[in-house]
Structures are given as C-alpha cells and as structure tokens.
C-alpha cells in the first residue's frame, strides 16, 4: 500500500557542527523562517544565484539555516525551485538534498542559541523563537567573518532588517579576502 510508505526523501540524522564545519571553510546564512516573505523572495534566491561565485572564493559549502524542521525546509527548497541532489558522494550529510545551497534545519534552535542569535517575535508575527538574520564565514570551526543585521538581536523587533546578511555583501567580502 503506497499510503503506508514512510521513506524519507532526505538524509534523516542528527548532525553536529563538527560534521559540517571541521576542516572546511563554509558560509552559513540564517533567516527567521522558511516561506516568509524576505527569506523567500530575496535571501535564499540571492545565495542560490551567487552560489558558484561564492564557491570560487575558496568556500567548501553554503548553508541556509532556519529554526524550522527538516520537512518544512525540504518543502521550502522544492517550492523555491532548488535543484534536488539525489545522491551526493561529496557531501553525504547534505541536509535537504539540494545541489547548491544546503538547507539546514535547526528545529530545536540549538545552533541559533549557541551563536547568540535567538530572538522572539511573538507579539508581532507570532513566530516564537527564531533566528535573527545574519551570515557568517566559518573557517575550520572558527568564525572568520560575521555580518549581523542592525539592532543586533532584538526581541519583538518591529523591522526585519536585511542589509548586510545578503549574498552580495558576503560575495564582496569573500572576493576582497581572496586578494
């Protein structure tokens, strides 16, 4: 019976920061939520568009992190038109199974809290605990450069700033760091 098929179309396993970042130079950009307006219209599409250019700057991988579960992140990636990666020998951990930007669920908000980027927009958006918008270059488990949106991490912040965590700012930094 096809209705009882419980196969998961992506890798289902707990992943530690070391698994993704140790011995690598990666870009992580974090956003408040899958399917939200700025995240869907600009933030993720910008990194998808500039993925190849970012990789050419000595970056091993690009991750999009959000305080959502793996199922939501996968459906968002599909809705965004991200190309699926059916198998990956280069990155067997490949969260979300997409070829370019890898969607990284932080369902319990553990990584987000560890970065000091947890915030709550409950009175304005009903979001509960989410990630403040930022982007970071992690080089072998160490922060090389971080771009945090204005206001640092505001609780119940009226605006949702999007000025420095975008792909263009990150690409500019990576290109200047190459010189």
UniProtKB/TrEMBL annotation:
Q: Which UniProt keywords apply?
A: Antioxidant, Oxidoreductase, Peroxidase, Redox-active center
| Residue ranges constituting the Thioredoxin domain according to the UniProt record | 1-179
Looking at the record's lineage, which domain of life comes first?
Eukaryota
InterPro entries linked to this entry? PRX5-like, Redoxin, Thioredoxin-like_sf, Thioredoxin_domain
- Give the matching SUPFAM superfamilies: Thioredoxin-like (SSF52833)
One of the protein's GO biological processes: cellular response to oxidative stress
What protein family is recorded?
A: Belongs to the peroxiredoxin family. Prx5 subfamily.
Q: What is this protein called?
A: Thioredoxin domain-containing protein
Organism of origin: Guillardia theta (Cryptophyte)
Classification of source organism = Eukaryota, Cryptophyceae, Pyrenomonadales, Geminigeraceae, Guillardia
């Amino acid at each position: 019976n096809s209705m009882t098929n419980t196969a998961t179309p992506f890798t289902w396993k707990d992943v530690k920061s070391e698994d993704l970042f140790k011995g690598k130079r990666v870009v992580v950009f974090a956003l408040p939520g899958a399917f939200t307006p700025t995240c869907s219209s600009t933030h993720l599409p910008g990194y998808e568009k500039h993925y190849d250019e970012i990789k050419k700057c000595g970056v091993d991988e690009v991750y999009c992190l959000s305080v959502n579960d793996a199922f939501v992140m996968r459906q968002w990636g599909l809705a965004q038109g991200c190309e699926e990666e059916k198998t990956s020998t280069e990155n067997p951990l490949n969260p979300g199974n997409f070829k370019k930007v890898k969607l990284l669920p932080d369902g319990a908000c553990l990584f987000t809290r560890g970065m000091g980027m947890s915030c709550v927009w409950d009175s304005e958006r009903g979001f509960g605990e989410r990630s403040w918008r930022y982007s970071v270059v992690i080089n072998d488990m160490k922060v090389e450069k971080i771009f945090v949106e204005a206001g640092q991490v505001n609780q119940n912040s009226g605006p949702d700033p999007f000025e420095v965590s975008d792909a263009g700012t990150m690409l500019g930094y990576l290109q200047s760091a190459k010189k």
